[in-house]
Amino acid sequence: MARTEVKEAVNVQVTLRHTNNHREIEQYARDAVQVLDKIFSGIVNCHVILDHQKNDFEKNKLAEITVHIPQNVLVAKEAAAKYEQAIDSCVDSLGRQLRKHKEKLQNHR
């Protein structure tokens, strides 16, 4: 009988500042962060902060993603015209940071 492991999804907390209830963008952020678990499986939790700035008309959507991994915290902040673009930029940046961290761990052993 084959054993199948069911891995739990990464615990993601989403905070919306200065904006109304946006379930779609909240779910988009949760789904986008789940991709990081494929790069580095040791993620403890993630916190996504989405903010709307009124003083900048072009890049007024801000995303900040904090990823907690054992003995380290990685942060990415991006501004864009849409929340989706800002979230994707943060996820790309965190992907690079996680790959670099994973490489350091493998070289250190």
Oligomer: single chain
* Strand order across the largest sheet: 1-2-3-4
Distance between the termini: 34 Å
| β-strand number | 4
The 3D shape can be described as elongated
Find the structural class using helix and strand composition.
alpha+beta
- Tally of separate helices: 3
How can the largest sheet be summarized? 4 strands, mixed
Return the average pLDDT rounded to an integer.
86
Written description of the protein model:
The protein has 109 residues and is of the alpha+beta class. It is 39% helix and 30% strand. It contains three helices and four strands, in the order E-H-H-E-E-E-H. It has a four-stranded mixed β-sheet with strand order 1-2-3-4, covered by helices on one side. Helix 1 (23-34) runs parallel beside helix 3. The N and C termini lie far apart (34 Å). 23% of the residues are buried. The model is unreliable at 1-6 (pLDDT under 50).
